[in-house]
Amino acid sequence: MSPLEIGYASITGLIVLIYLGMPIGVAMLGVSFFGVSMIRNDAVAMNMLGAVGNDSLREYLFAVVPLFVLMGLLVTVSNVGKDTFDVFERLMRRVTAGLGIATVFANAVFASITGISIASATVFSRVAVPEMTRHGYTKRFATGVVAGSSVLGMLIPPSLLMIVYAVLAEQSVGRMFLAGIGPGLLLSVVFAATILLLARRSERFVFDTREDTAAYDDLSLGGFLKKSVPILSLMILVLGGLYGGFLNPTEAGAAGAAGALVIALLRRSLPKRTLWNLMVETGQITVSVLFLILAATFFSRMLALSGVPRELADLFLETAIGPYGFLIVYLLLIVVLGCLIDSISIMLIVLPIALPVAQAAGFDLIWFGVLTVVAVELGLLTPPFGLSVYTIKSAIEDPDLSVGDIFRGALPFVAAMVVSLAILILFPSISTWLARL
Questions:
Q1: Per the database record, which ranges form the TRAP C4-dicarboxylate transport system permease DctM subunit domain (predicted)?
Q2: Share of the chain above pLDDT 90, in %
Q3: Which of 217, 283, 288, 354 to pair with 64, CA 20 to 30 A apart?
């Protein structure tokens, strides 16, 4: 077999192994080792595996992963998400479908201090959904809003997916974080516009009853400030330090984790056992992410050795398909994969193949990364996988609420994400202008 044939056989083998249920990291390591052994020999494969383990995980940058994960877990247990929702509920209660819009913007703010979409889905399904249904919104719409807006957690910085992309594409994490701000704000505004449109054109989808007779909790100025200050302080500490040039991404993660720990301790939401459990969970998430990055790095080097990326670049860029034809096919593939597997795994499988083609096409890799993250996040809302949907279902535990209802509630927000993705393709500067300053 030629190296090219071995490369294609390895990709096919990876898909088969994943379909059979093998863990994605193990499958990638296995087919990569097999591919290098076939192209060269076992000794080269062993040496390359050792080099990958050394090169891909020794960077100081990787300390950012556990720090941001820990920060996200700490703010989740300290009820910062509920406070954020309460603040926006107070601001939006007089607006049509105001609680839906409050949920979107509360999720956007919460995303800026967590970076994990599933955390947002868990918190707001317990905070926003009961409050919205109490005020006459349908459960389908309430859960759909939470599912849709939870995707902001992986787009608005700090974002775990942005970190993974930056590592695989060899881009600056700080620039990727900056690139996520414009698209995150765009998506928030499009979601809010979608809610207003639904409230005016499809009232039965949004409201169980048009007359809201339930009382709102009275939030005094002192209470408003008490709930706002911790959120704003953490945002200023992390994002202000990062974008002001005072902290690099790893230092910003450390400062954010320390700030979140102080908030949790002041609120007495960290008994010893809880803190230990959070540390263990942080370790588990970090190890799984870093292992997947190691496997993806080995897979990428095997593909480069086989010549598959070069062959694909010639196929897409020197035929009638062209660069933007490749981009459309790539984004559609990601959306389809999102129906089947989780976000990080999608990126680790497709990016080693797609990045060389994108680079040969002359695409800005920062912009390409933003498009990738938005397309990947679509998978959180689409059946049959729809991880955010299943997270909400498990968090609410309402026997009258089916998974199908949540998927139907999220459908308008899937459409809103598709519109936003088209806008980002047509206007790349939305993603790149801050990153290029």
A1: 12-430
A2: 8
A3: 354
pLDDT of residue 234: 83
- For the record, the structure tokens of 130 come out as 């009961």
Q: Residue 158: is the preceding peptide bond cis (ω within 30°)?
A: yes
Q: Of 40-44, 128-132, 142-146, 313-317, give the lowest mean pLDDT range.
A: 313-317
- Burial annotation 147-162 (CB, 10 A radius, 16+ → b, else e): bbbbbbbbbbbbbbbb
Instruction: Report whether 317 contacts 357 (CB < 8 A).
Output: yes
CA–CA distance, 88 with 101 (Å, rounded to integer): 8
Question: Residue 250 and residue 173: Cα distance in Å, rounded?
Answer: 9
Q: DSSP class of residue 52?
A: H
DSSP string for residues in 165-224: HHHHHT--HHHHHHHTHHHHHHHHHHHHHHHHHHHHH-HHHHBS-SS--SPPPP--HHHH
> Amino acid letter at 203?
E
Report DSSP letters for 406-424, one per residue. HHHHHHHHHHHHHHHHHHH
Neighbours of 8 (CB within 10 A): 16
- Considering only residues 45 and 365, tell me which one the structure prediction assigns the higher pLDDT: 365
CA torsion, ordered 275, 79, 129, 158, to nearest 10 deg: -80
**N-term to C-term CA, the chain:** 48
pTM attached to this predicted model: 0.83
- CA dihedral (327, 328, 330, 334) positive or negative: positive
> Tens digits of per-residue pLDDT, 50-73?
777 776 666 666 777 788 788 878
State the angle between helix axes of 343-360 and 3-19 in degrees (0 to 180), rounded to the nearest 10. 160
Contact present, 75 and 260 (Cβ < 8 Å) = yes
Q: What are the Cα distances from residue 241, in Å, to 238, 253, 254, 260, 371?
A: 5, 10, 11, 15, 26
The contacts of residue 98 (CB under 8 Å, 6+ apart) are: 89, 92
Residue type, 221: L
Distance CA 238, CA 243 (A): 9
For residues 88 and 314, give the distance between their C-alpha atoms in angstroms, rounded to a whole number: 51
| Contact criterion met (CB below 8 Å) for 116 and 163 | no
Length of the chain: 437
Taking 90 as the threshold, does the pLDDT of residue 422 lie above it?
yes
